[in-house]
Amino acid sequence: MALLSCKNLWKWYPSPDGRLEVLRGIDFELTQNEFVAIVGASGVGKSTLLHLLGLLDTPSEGDVTFEEKSVANLSDDQMAHIRVDSIGFVFQFHHLMPEFTALENLLIPQKITRCNGAGTKERAMYLLDSLGIADRAKHFPGQLSGGEQQRVTLARALINEPKVILADEPTGNLDSDNAQKFMDIIGMMRERNSIAVILATHNLQVAKFAEVILRLKSGKLSTEKKL
Questions:
Q1: Structural domain boundaries enclosing 178
Q2: Which residue of 68, 107, 207, 216 has the smallest Cβ count within 10 Å?
Q3: pTM of the full predicted structure?
Q4: Strands 2-15, 164-168: parallel, antiparallel or unpaired by DSSP?
Q5: What pLDDT digit, counting tens, does each position of 174-226 carry?
Q6: Spatial distance between the Cα atoms of 14 and 17, rounded to a whole number of angstroms
């Protein structure tokens, strides 16, 4: 069963010279626990595709389905529930709240879903410990290294036990050693929690962590590697 998919997905924007087509009829399917990398040059539309698959934006044409149900006729609230309950996001820029500690940043998604039970803080600490930064729980983002901030971001994406992680250039601001460590951690957490991953990157070394590599070029997806 497809966990997340799209059919004939188009995205365009108005411009003085007519519509600017970013995505041109993309078909895509992700199954449970699958790891797919989408590669391509900067500006080719990788982030646009992830935003559409993550229900952060709406397509100009075509359909996105989650667990084989079309999201086309869902309300904003219904799509928000899917995002909060089932999709974890990791971006190149961590978007941590600077006035909150690492632990407090993890608890924000739980507060949104009003899941503030006795086990909430324990789960957050478990994730920080699993990612090797439990001792940084009370530190603010400005007191953390870039790699530590990205680990907090990953923990925040995992706090609500999502079914899929969408990672948009998550290693873009990390050096090669920290990028390797971060991708090792994503792989470990994916296997431990049976989570599917879609990774958008221009870095082929990072993309090699995936089982399937797709290339986005001229608004179309093509298969580059499939194990």
A1: 2-226
A2: 68
A3: 0.88
A4: unpaired
A5: 788 888 888 888 888 888 889 999 999 988 989 999 999 999 999 999 997 76
A6: 8
